[in-house]
C-alpha cells in the first residue's frame, strides 16, 4: 500500500509539519487570543520552520471577522484564508480545504489554530452559557419547546437503543474507556478511573445521558501546520501525510434528519477512505469527536469499523483502549482530556503524535510486535450530527 495513493497526478503531496497544544484544562489567566498565539508558536517550533513560510491561515470561533482578527493578533498576512464554521467538525473540514489548496498550489503552508476559555469565562461569569445557536432561522421552530443541543443527542441515542437494542451499559463503556486512556495523558483534565456503575448512577442531564456521558468543559487551544512536500526536507521531525479527506452536511432541524441513527460521517468517512486508498480495517487508531458517548458509538458504525446497529457490542470488551483492537481517543477525548468548545483540531494533534511515536510510554499505541501505528483517522462532528469532516493520515 502506498502512503501517497490519495494524491492525484500533478498535485503536490501535503504533510503535517507541526502540531501543538496551548496550556489546557483550567486556564484562568489567559485570553482566547493568547491561547491561539501560544499554540501557534509551539506548533512552529515543533515543525522547525520559520513563521515566514506561512501563507495560509484558518481559524473560526473567535472575533467578528475570524480569521482576520486572529491573523492580525499573530502578526500574519496570509494570502489564503478559511473561516468555515460548522461546529466541532470545523477543523477537519478546514484541514480538507487547506490540503486541497496546498495540493493545487494555492498555498504552501497553512496554519490551523484554535483557542477558547469556555470554562474560565463561565467561572468568571463573563457569560452564562457555554454555547447557544440562537433562535433564528429554522431553529425558531424548535427553541420554544426547550429542544436544547444535548436533548437532540439524547433523542438520537434513544432511537439507537430502540432500533438496535443498544444498552446504557454499552454507552457507558465509551466513557469508561475514554477515562482509562486519559490516565496515561499528563495533560488530561480527568485521569481517575470510573466504572460503568458510576456512569449510570450520576446526575441525569438529558435522558439517557447522565453527567459522565457528556463531555467536560475546559479551556485550551491547539494548532496544526500543513505544508507542501517541498518543505519536508526542512522539517524538524518526520512528516505525517494527509492521505485523503471527506466532508458532509446533513440537517439543521431534527425534522429534516432522515435517520437519527446515521450521522454525516457515513458520507465523509466513505469519501476520505476512498480518496486515501485505504480501508477501515487497515486503520491503526481513530480520533473521534466525543461530545457525548453516543457520538463515539455511532461514528464508529458510520466510518465502517462495525456494521450499523453493532456499535454497542463493538465498544464492549475494551476495544477502544490504547491496547485494544481499535484504540479510540487515545488522549482521553472530550469526555476526559479536554473540550474547550470546538474540539476537532485536537483530534488531528493527537493522531499526528501517535503516528510519530510521541505520545509517551503510558499512551503510545503499538501494533502487534511493537511497531508504531501507520494509519490514523480523525473524524469531527458538528452541531447535532449536522456536519462531519474525516481525515486519513499516514506516517512518513
Automatic annotation (TrEMBL):
Pfam families linked: Thiolase_C_1
Thiolase C-terminal domain location: 246-394
Transmembrane segments: none
InterPro entries: Thiolase, Thiolase-like, Thiolase_C_2
Top-level lineage group: Bacteria
Name of the molecule in the record: Acetyl-CoA acetyltransferase
